[in-house]
Amino acid sequence: MSTYNIFQIAVPEFKHIHDAKLQHDQAVELLNCIFIEIPKLSKQQLETIGLDKAIYDAIKHGMFEFIDEIIELYPEILWRKDKKGRTLFANAIVLRQEKIFNHVFRLGEKQRLTLLRHDIFRNNFLHLAAKLSPPSRLDHISGAALQMQRELQWFKELRRILPPKFEEELNENNRTPASLFSHEHKELMKEGEKWMKNNAASCMVVATLISAVMFTSAFTVPGGIDEKTGSPIFLRSNAFLKDFLQSLPAKSILGLFTLFFSIVNMMVAFGSAIFITLQERLAWVSIPVIILSTVPIAFFTLLQFPLLIEMLVSTYCCRIFDKSPNQT
């Protein structure tokens, strides 16, 4: 028995990995053979074999390796338009596939002229970035506010690399890219405002409950004293569309940071107070009380901390595209 067979028996998952890798290699080899023949086919034959649909599906599912192979073997594909008059990179924008669009930064100046194309609806590439992202892409992002932020990041990055004149061009519906963006994202912006308010309110409720319950239970004098409570006042103001890019996420991040910091300090104060109060008589009681009091805090942290990390990464630690437009 060979070493490979022994390893297969010892590690069953290895066969699955090996088969997947073999299937991938065979698919790449088949792709190479297909695209060697494609330049020989007529336009009608290309439509018959469904080339445009195959490329669109590859973009939709983020198969950037497949697209890279196509561009390398058949560079003319960059100039090919589908029935809507959209090129490969135009569909990458519509479908929000940044890994595929990143390939544009590896092209020469002549090939980048594909970015100047318009579709049959007179949409330029900035108009396409202004369209609402497909639900399948939005669903990967937590919360309407972060979805709105991502949409603004796409629009901002495309505006940075495209000619300034694109910002003033009108499509067949007489809309500029900015006007189209506002129209397409009207509902998402409302949902984003609602999400931000609900998130802030839930955090405020938790902070209020923690401070009220913990400090009251720890420091209440036998016989009681009169305490005044009040409801927090929330100032309401309309959130402008651009605020979703930096301002609102930054304020949410700051709010969550201060909330977590407050929770830690409250727990330290509560634990210390309980221990000092009970150490002379029932010291053992303080331990389960402190442990039980941390359970809801732990659940809240587990729910909110991943959101904080996602907001930090989305706002400060990443960009839509890997390279600047000046790099080739």
TrEMBL record:
Gene Ontology annotations for the cellular component aspect, listed alphabetically: membrane
Keywords: Membrane, Transmembrane, Transmembrane helix
Membrane-crossing residue ranges in chain numbering: 199-221, 253-275, 282-303
Pfam families: PGG (PF13962)
Residues of the PGG domain: 193-240
Signal peptide: none
Top-level division of the source organism's lineage: Eukaryota
Record's protein name: PGG domain-containing protein
